[in-house]
Design brief:
The protein has 266 residues and is an alpha/beta fold. It has two domains: 128 residues, Periplasmic binding protein-like II (D-Maltodextrin-Binding Protein, domain 2), CATH 3.40.190.10; 107 residues, Periplasmic binding protein-like II (D-Maltodextrin-Binding Protein, domain 2), CATH 3.40.190.10. The chain is 35% helix and 24% strand. It contains nine helices and eleven strands. The chain has a six-stranded mixed β-sheet, sandwiched between helices. A five-stranded mixed β-sheet has the order 7-6-8-5-9, with helices on both faces. β1, α1 and β2 form a beta-alpha-beta unit. α1 packs across α7. The protein starts with 7 loop residues before the first strand and ends with a helix. The relative contact order is 0.21.
Length: 266
């Protein structure tokens, strides 16, 4: 009796509003390879260390930390290109600094003493990039009166929109999707600064998969944007497609991490 193919597991460690994009990738890989695939919500980076998942949609900060821990743990193989003009057809994103609409703050320098919301300490766009700015300007974490962890960018946006915190840095791709889903928040927040650009979050392969499977999946994902049947679903996530990336693509995030560590901010 022929054995059924093993389920190829993808995990997402990123914002919930991006899940439809990652479901499209997961489904398409399964269809092209002719084997079952499943997308799960990542709960711990140990899932990657222990090879419990084959591929993961992962923030750049934990990616570079995992590579520093052991270069064999994960390989960056592809990353999305966001559709808007500001991204220039490149696999980049920004951290948009938002404040409540009625805040007197007009620039970063006006935020001294404000409360700050961030999604989580393993986030590049919501946390490390802020530490990098503080290091660049020779400031300490006490620049902000308090740091409020929210769990997700979407919650940070809601807290700023309700005036519960003074400011936050939000992944620009997530911000646009979140404002599309909650258009009333467009009138409740303002962008007063932009941090970045930074290389956008990669799709990574873990050491649980073979080199040949890694290459096959990368080819399928990079070809997504060329397939007319996928364009509508890509556009719903404000993405043109995916391009090839590798470990060197994340040198910018390594530099920011090194600067924050040198300043003893993390």
């Amino acid at each position: 009796m022929q054995r059924s193919p093993e389920v190829l597991v993808f995990a997402t460690y990123l914002a919930p509003c991006l899940k439809p994009l990652y479901q499209l990738v997961t489904d398409t890989v399964g269809e092209e390879l002719g084997r079952p695939t499943r997308l799960v919500d990542g709960t711990s980076l140990d899932q990657l260390r222990q090879g419990e998942v084959g591929f993961a949609f992962l923030c750049g900060l934990p990616y570079v930390r995992l590579r520093r821990e052991d270069p064999s743990l994960v390989d960056a193989i592809a990353a999305p290109v966001v559709s808007e003009v500001r991204y220039g057809g490149r696999p980049i994103y920004f951290s948009d600094v938002i404040v409540p609409r009625d805040s007197p703050a007009k620039a970063w320098g006006d935020l001294r003493g404000a409360s700050w919301a961030y999604n989580e300490p393993d986030s590049h766009s919501g946390y490390l990039v802020t530490l990098s700015r503080l290091a660049e300007t020779a400031e300490r974490a006490t620049y902000f009166s308090r740091w409020d962890p929210t769990g997700f960018h979407e919650r940070s946006i809601e807290m700023v929109a309700r005036g519960e915190v003074g400011a936050s840095a939000i992944d620009s791709h997530v911000l646009e999707l979140a404002l599309r889903n909650r258009p009333a928040n467009r009138d409740r927040i303002r962008v007063i600064d932009v941090l970045g650009p930074s290389t956008i979050q990669p799709l990574v392969a873990t050491r649980a998969v073979s080199e040949s499977l890694k290459r096959d999946v990368a080819e399928i994902v990079v070809a997504l944007g060329d397939r007319p049947e996928h364009r509508e679903r890509l556009q719903r996530s404000l993405v043109d497609g995916f391009v090839t990336v590798d470990d060197g693509s994340y040198a910018d995030i390594r530099r920011m991490l090194a600067a924050a560590e040198a300043a003893r901010l993390c």
